[in-house]
Design brief:
By secondary structure, this protein is an alpha+beta fold. Helix content is 15%, strand content 33%. The protein is built from 2 helices and 6 strands; from the N terminus they run αββββαββ. The strands form 2 sheets. A 3-stranded antiparallel beta sheet has the order 1-4-3. It has a 3-stranded antiparallel beta sheet with strand order 2-5-6, with no helix packed on it. It is globular. The two termini are 22 Å apart.
Length: 97
């Protein structure tokens, strides 16, 4: 399972800006594990558009994000939309919601 997830993330980070659709690709995150984006090039910049998610760059070509536990459960029982993650590498940019 982890291997399949790793391969999926690795392959999705190879899309170039030219090939990117107008609609943002959706990534589902889990409150109990971190989500990793592995890119083919060193990551230059990452923007997380909300305070509901924290992230870092543990190595030069990887981005790690995780939702804050306090933000996942609201009084209504619904999970909030966690914003947009923008990853900029040397030759491309990709966004996920």
């Amino acid at each position: 399972m982890k291997y399949n997830l790793f391969i999926f993330i690795f392959l999705t980070c190879h899309f170039h800006l030219i090939a990117q659709d107008q609609d943002l690709k959706t990534v589902f995150v889990n409150e109990n594990v971190s989500t990793h984006f592995v890119c083919s090039e060193p990551v230059q910049y990452v923007d997380i558009s909300t305070d509901h998610v924290v992230g870092d760059i543990p190595i030069s070509n990887m981005v790690r994000i995780k939702p804050k536990k306090s933000m996942l459960t609201e009084q209504t029982g619904m999970k909030p939309e966690l914003g947009v993650v923008t990853i900029v590498a040397e030759q491309y940019m990709i966004q996920y919601k």
